[in-house]
Amino acid sequence: MRFQLTEDQRALREGVRGLLAGRFGRERLRAAMEGDAPQLDRGLWRELGAAGFFSLRLPEAAGGVGLGLPEAVLVFEEAGRVLLPGPLIATHLAAGVVPGAATGETVVTVVDAGGAVEWLAVADVVQGDAAGAVPVRSADPLTPLHRVAGPDSSSDARTTDVLLTSLLTAAEQLGTAARVGELAVQHARTREQFGRSIGAFQAVQHLCAGMLVRVEVARAAVYAAAVTGDPADIAAARLLADEAAVRGARDCLQVHGGMGFTWESDVHLYLKRAWVRARRPGSVTECEELLAAELLAEAS
Length: 300
Known about the structure:
55% of the residues lie in helices and 6% in strands. The protein contains 10 helices and 7 strands.
């Protein structure tokens, strides 16, 4: 099933893609990983704020763009395509609540229900109690993590924020899944073995076809959940998007062979980011339990 975007939605997606291509290309991605800790580009953060990235769903009367959740999903999908770093979702959800979040002047992070905090060291505002947080090793070199001793009990009360975080995470995963599929196809067309491109081999074709199927199924689910806002729809979308991103990145590595694991390649970075995102609230276990409860309720 393909969702037909409106002309305005297509323009929004292309505009965000163009902005990110011009301001966060491969060189910036690599530069962000230099030094002992990943760097957050404050200039880019403010530029995102000026473009309405964080204030997208804020009413126009409050200084926002006045769009809805479907448009936010399109924007975060583009962020996932380029591995845009930073606590994007937390800052987006804080627009209109935390001064400066909407404009990108303030970087906001949050202590999630599991006690994890992303980008704590660079955040201006932390939602939740991060007292005693200690740094932990992150699989993703562009997502620094801290963990507090116990879960943030206040996070459980932010049910709406947890649902939105899960959906926007699914949108990021969708963007990553789509991008690794493109990288796999590009490599399969240009890499030659035994005198012909590896894309001519059936095993490689099956890997690429599987990636495409998972992306399109996840896209339909994510876009539908953005329209309905139903918790069960969001859970299903998150499950499908996590699978599309993680399995897609793994299959992309398979297509690239040993080259995909080298530091010169970007493919392994997509897998590492997908792993970290998959651990956010609304993870596989939570989504499966929600859907199981939904099915049992319908059957009773």
